[in-house]
Specification:
This protein has 202 residues and is α+β, with helices and mostly antiparallel strands. The chain is built from four helices and eleven strands. The strands form three sheets. Strands 5, 6, 7, 8, 9, 10 and 11 form a seven-stranded antiparallel sheet that branches. A two-stranded antiparallel sheet has the order 1-2.
Length: 202
């Protein structure tokens, strides 16, 4: 007796073609090709529950888990030699382990001399009002310590009235909430809170 004749055929979930291959993980979803499993995986993964382990020759391997995608957000760049801050895009690496928390990691080092950047989180805006969306400010500690040229963009938004001049580049990202679990797009509406911070910094 032909071994394939003894198998029960089911319709492929994608194209309804008769098949005897199934998802190796749950063994309850039928696919005629690995490509159909791959294309249906975003939907199927929500219902795919591991079945008791068994080895079968008619199994299509389940695709590996999807790797987290790079997250891209708008940020504000205060470049030392520019008169105005400008909006840039910043890539954020999703956390890979639970120890890294849930917030993506901004990849801002390319904007700083020597790749070194420190950060501070601003939780208060004008007149000490709490910010609904805290701001994550990145700066160059070596530029500040070395008294590098004054940041013209910061000098301009503070009208030169800051108690201590800022040196080197500054990048500002905006958290998506007070729990600081991710970022949203920063924009010009965040400048008043930043100006207040730069003016108060000593």
């Amino acid at each position: 007796m032909n071994s394939s004749a003894s198998l029960i055929n089911h319709p492929c979930i994608v194209c309804y073609k008769s098949t005897h291959m199934w998802c190796s993980r749950c063994q309850s979803a039928w696919y005629c090709t690995p490509e159909h499993l791959q294309s249906d995986w975003p939907r199927h993964r929500r219902e795919c529950m591991p079945a008791a382990s068994a080895q079968h020759s008619n199994v299509i391997a389940t695709p590996p888990p999807v790797q987290p995608q790079m997250i891209v957000v708008s940020a504000i760049l205060f470049a030392p030699q520019e008169d105005r801050p400008r909006i840039i895009t910043v890539n954020c690496d999703p956390p890979r382990t639970a120890a890294q928390g849930t917030c993506p990691i901004p990849l801002v080092q390319e904007h700083f001399p020597g790749g070194q950047a420190n950060s501070v989180v601003l939780t208060q805006g004008l007149n000490g009002e709490p910010l609904r969306f805290p701001l994550h400010l990145w700066y160059s500690p070596s530029a500040v310590a070395a008294n590098a040229p004054i940041n013209q963009a910061i000098s301009r938004i503070t009208s030169g009235a800051a108690a201590k001049p800022w040196c080197g580049p500054v990048i500002v990202l905006k958290y998506n909430g007070s729990r600081r679990q991710g970022y949203s797009d920063a924009g010009s509406n965040d400048l008043p809170a930043l100006s207040a911070y730069f003016l108060a910094y000593k």
